[in-house]
Amino acid sequence: MTVLALASVLDIRAAEPLQTSLMALRGQAVTLDASQVERLGGLCLQVLVSAQRTWAADGQSLTLAPDSAAFSEQWTAFGAAPLAEALGEPA
Amino acid sequence: MDAFEAIKATFFQECDELLADLEAKLLVLESGQTDSETINAVFRAVHSVKGGAGAFGLEALVRFAHVFETLLDELRAGRKPCDEITVRTLLRASDVLADHVAAAQGHAPEVDEARSAGLVAELETLTHGEGGAPVVEEEDDFGFTPLTIGLPSLDLPSLDLPSLDLPSLAAAPATGWRIVFRPHGRMYANANETGLLLRELGRLGPVTVSLDDSAVPSLEELIAEENELVWTIELAAAVDEVAVRDVFDFVESDCDLSIQPLGAGPADDLPALPDLGLPSLEAPAEAFDLSALLAAAQEPAIVKAVAPAPVEPTPVAAPAPAPVQAQAAPAQAAPTAPTAPAPATIRVDLDRVDRLINVVGELVIQQAMLAQRVAESGLTRSSGVLMGLEDLELLTREIQDSVMAIRAQPVKSVFQRMPRLVREVADMTGKRVRLVTAGEDTEVDKTVVERLAEPITHMLRNAIDHGLETPDERLAAGKAAEGAVRLAALHRSGRIVIEISDDGKGINRERVRGIAVSRGLIAEDAVLTDEEVDNLIFLPGFSTAETITDVSGRGVGMDVVKRSIQALGGRISISSVPGKGSTFTLSLPLTLAVLDGMVVGAAEQTLVAPLSNIVESLTPRAQDIHYVGGRDAVIRFREAFVPLVDVAQTMGFRDEPVTPGQGVALVVETESGQRAALMVDAIQGQRQVVIKSLETNYQQVPGVAAATILGDGRVALILDVDAIVANARRRPAAPELKLAS
């Protein structure tokens, strides 16, 4: 399984690099390492939502481990679906 | 300056405006008009300062602003009365807030901690009552560190309260808001962030955030910098719509936004939910305004002047939810506050304006030179060239006036700083003072405005410290205990006049004279008029304060004030009535850039007399000229005699005066109203000249205000009429002004 470490600041500047990194891992099971994330912005949230949708469509797993408190709190504050559902193993 | 510093500089610029607005609004409150709109405006000003400060990590400023804002929040909610004591405290708090801003900016030393802490305590007492425990929000984090919002506690099943059937609430004011928010990619590009806006909303009350991500495409179709997410936020708090809208103040043109009151639905019951255990949502919201400010700093002109852009078509996106688009326009166009629309403005670097003014100045000179060349070429007056030139002259003049108008600013910016000064000086001297201002909207060139602050400050200090009596003395003299100081600005004959008057004891002429004698400034037996005695206080080294006080005895005397005014081409005069008070009058040119002048010739020299001084010109006959004591020439003018001053002689261009019966007399009036006739050889014409400072390029010359370049390329001196007249009066036989030998 490939692990993709997320940058600590996921703001507008991180959105396109994050999308590119994820695209490069397309077609394989990926684990996102969010342990270093301090700030999650709206555009990176969108990339991750899109990735989750894409991975689900591909039938691949996109999981999150380990997490950081900041990441999960901000994720939830955005009103996004709980992480376990959003980024868990595809059914 | 890097981008961050530039944004910070803009923030401080905005702070200046916000603080000025804050004080102005507080003064409105002080006058007894405690309407909610004014209180809201005060709150917004402090809130905006705090928000920006948080963004830049200016913690001391944020902490103070926070306490300040908390009390204001109580006032605007009507939970605390906006009484006289409160308003006074607010005024002092605004002073300390300004100190914090100045310190943060590096323009001032550290803030007086004791004073700041004392005011914090006062504000908290007013907020929470005597002995009330101030809510110290230790969790407040004003930096950009990540949220630590305990969202598990945000589990708000109680928000779904269908069982709370409260139909009677239908007629009540909105007790909550449903906000549908779809940012454009541009909003993020402008350094704004949805997360911060959500946190800011959370500060207003409990929120339920839901995200509609249905429009987000697959990763390969996604454009990372465009946004397809739509947030719906239900805010369960009975706050003003303005407060909600304020959150989006800086991003409104970069998003689709709909703010609707929560209907008679279940959420209506939510104002009673402070116990819902949601304090964690009131976590550091300070960063929000920061981002908004950043956006404003980056594109202020666009933010202010451009109408909200339509929703941008995005190639990959499914359409955004219909209600958002449908409601966006009305939402943006419907501010609730009944404020007049602000005129569109842009910020322009002063350098650019100055460059424009310089170039226009050159244009005026070139135009004059061209006109002179054409005149010398012998073309007839009716020729097309001359007529075209006349049109060009009108146009040039119009351009120049318009450019000058760009630089014109109301003196309000200076006047607004004075109430604070008066409060402080009154506190230090134990006097009671009421400051009355008039004519704040009088406009004058920006350079003049900036350089007015110091002399006005000094003279106000003097007026309170030396002019006004203590309350006891005033009562004993049959006056009101509270002294009045009046600061007024007005336009008078092409100049701006600033008057500073007090109703104090007036100048003690005996004492002034005694001091002048003891310091060797005048001879013991000198015979001086009242006016001359009053003017002794402008002599260097004169100070009437027997002990140097903290207030005005700072080693800066009225002579420095006078010099700084003179350096601006202005004059200062004084009138005083014992027991009634004194009035200082400053008269300054409206601009330091151009002048309407009469071009005259005197002993082969070309000179310019400011038109504003000239009353009349005439050709005196030899018999009109009389000599007093066989020496001092006077001329009969409208049933009176006025002194005749030969300009060329006074300036040292020649030794003998112009032959009686030849030459032209310009009857001039000085600032103090004295009249004199300036004798010159001939009048060449009247024109607008561009002022070139002699001081900057050479040095100050007595009798000469400045210089200009004429149409033929020669330099002409601009006369300082007052100095020439004063000099001729004082020493008619021994001219002090000698420019040539």
Automatic annotation (TrEMBL), chain A:
It comes from the Bacteria. Transmembrane segments: none annotated. InterPro entries: MlaB-like_STAS, STAS_dom, STAS_dom_sf. Residues 1-65 form the STAS domain. Pfam families: STAS_2. This is Chemotaxis protein CheX. It comes from Brevundimonas lenta.
UniProtKB/TrEMBL annotation, chain B:
Residues 1-104 form the HPt domain. One of its GO terms (cellular component) is cytoplasm. Residues 318-341 are annotated as: Disordered. Residues 594-730 form the CheW-like domain. It is an enzyme of class 2 (transferase). Gene3D superfamilies: Histidine kinase CheA-like, homodimeric domain, Histidine kinase-like ATPase, C-terminal domain, HPT domain, SH3 Domains. The modification Phosphohistidine is found at H47. Keywords: ATP-binding, Chemotaxis, Kinase, Nucleotide-binding, Phosphoprotein, Transferase, Two-component regulatory system. CDD domains: CheA_reg, HATPase_CheA-like, HPT. It catalyses: ATP + protein L-histidine = ADP + protein N-phospho-L-histidine. The keyword Translocase does not apply. Its EC number is 2.7.13.3. PROSITE patterns: CHEW (PS50851), HIS_KIN (PS50109), HPT (PS50894). Residues 389-592 form the Histidine kinase domain. It holds the Pfam family HATPase_c. Involved in the transmission of sensory signals from the chemoreceptors to the flagellar motors. CheA is autophosphorylated; it can transfer its phosphate group to either CheB or CheY. This is Chemotaxis protein CheA.
